[in-house]
Design brief:
Layout lengths: L16 H21 L13 E3 L2 E3 L2 H12 L2 H17 L2 E2 L2 E7 L5 E4 L3 H9 L2 E2 L4 E2 L7
Antiparallel strand pairs: 1-2, 3-4, 4-5, 6-7
The protein binds zinc ion.
Length: about 140
């Protein structure tokens, strides 16, 4: 809980708000995924999800689509995605104010300012808004 936003890594350099937002969103997702999977793996379907209507199992195009959607958000899937994103974030690290890997082909392959468009896109995927400087989606500031 808490104060990830203001914490640097001891170096004194301020973390860009989009990156702080991204790291916090990923940490919350990991925490929620672990909390959901650790005590009760059996709660999660290992075989087709059953949709019941008045006690009867229903299987339609819509319920199968809903099942596919649910499976995309299973704890294991969330943890995999966050791990991959953290790898991307580590690759696109801050190297003296520029991205460690991104370069602008229109400017003689000069390194792009950090956070680069890739890092900002990751943050947007979690609800970051450059206009408001904060998450625009669900949740709020709790
Ligand atoms: Zn980059």
């Amino acid at each position: 809980m808490g104060t990830v936003q203001g914490e640097g890594r001891g170096g004194g350099a301020a973390v860009h708000p989009a990156v702080a937002f991204l790291r916090e969103a990923q940490a919350r997702a990991v925490e929620a995924a672990r909390a959901a999977s650790e005590p009760a793996l059996l709660l999660w379907p290992t075989h087709p999800v059953e949709f019941l209507l008045a006690g009867q199992e229903v299987s339609t195009l819509e319920t199968r689509a809903a099942e596919a959607h649910i499976r995309l958000h299973m704890p294991e899937a969330v943890l995999l995605r966050v791990e991959a994103e953290r790898g991307i974030l580590a690759d696109h690290a801050d190297a003296d104010g520029c991205c460690a890997v991104c370069a602008d082909p229109a400017a003689g392959r000069r390194a792009l300012e950090w956070p680069c468009p890739t890092v900002l896109a990751l943050a947007r995927a979690w609800g970051w808004s450059a206009q408001t400087g904060q998450g625009g989606g669900e949740g709020g500031s709790g």
